[in-house]
Amino acid sequence: MPRLMLTDARWEKLFHLMKSTGRVYDKPEHRQTFEGILYRLRTGIPWRDLPKEFGHWSTVFRRFHLWSKKDVLAHLFKALANLADIEWVFIDGSIVRAHQHSAGAATLNNESIGKSRGGNSTKIYLAVDSGGLPIYFELSEGQKHDITHAPSLIEHLKQVDTVIADKGYDSDAFCELIANKGGKSVIPRRRYKNTPQERVDWCLYRYRHLVENAFERIKHYRAISTRYDKLARNYASMVSLAFMLMWLPMCC
Questions:
Q1: How many helices (H) and strands (E) does the chain have?
Q2: How many CB atoms lie within 10 A of CB 50?
Q3: Is the dihedral of CA 125, 130, 132, 135 positive or negative?
Q4: By C-alpha distance, which of 9, 207, 215 is closest to 92?
Q5: Cα distance between residue 61 and residue 187, in whole Å
Q6: Taking every annotated instance into account, which residue ranges of this chain make up the domain Transposase IS4-like (predicted)?
Q7: CB of 148 within 8 A of CB of 173?
Q8: Over 125-138, what HEC string results?
Q9: How far from each other are the two terminal CA atoms of the chain, in whole angstroms?
Q10: Which of 15, 16, 30, 47 has the least C-beta neighbours within 10 A?
């Protein structure tokens, strides 16, 4: 039997959250299917190469696709992220290479895959809490600048106290948005502006590595570090599962 990722207690917690959506029924094969999805998350193998112990590969893929379409997997991450301590919020973006098999989806949009001299890529924008645990994320094409999704990251927070980010987020409009929501920004000024670093708490800024650590942890999963999914929705579901696995030890 391939190596599994969930204990009985963690599966019970997750399955309770899945049933709370009203879109998942109590079936004994769901745990086997879920473990198959996590196996593919960890290894990045094609769905067709899933070990037979998880059931037929097409059954596992169809169930994943259905849960992704119904936002069941995103719900797991969001439910666990409600436990976040958002006194400090660290934000950043990270690029992942999109495999050639991820291109060519039969849709009218770009599915968050951008083209540049470096090839196809997708960018993940992330906000983490005071302990470095993920709160909210978004996807875009890889060539997008971090500041383009920064306002959206803040708008999705329940409250804003202190937002810490690097120089890429040095924008008067963005800092004003944080201030209007009652928060404080810790963002260094770019050198070319020749303005004093009046809004930087350097002691707090040292902890900005927490958001980079979160990216490092999820990129241990090969289906995250390289994007194979054609649909942005399916890749976002895989990212949600990776972030969910960061939260599970805090809950079980």
A1: 10, 7
A2: 22
A3: negative
A4: 215
A5: 42
A6: 89-247
A7: no
A8: EEEECCCCCEEEEE
A9: 24
A10: 16
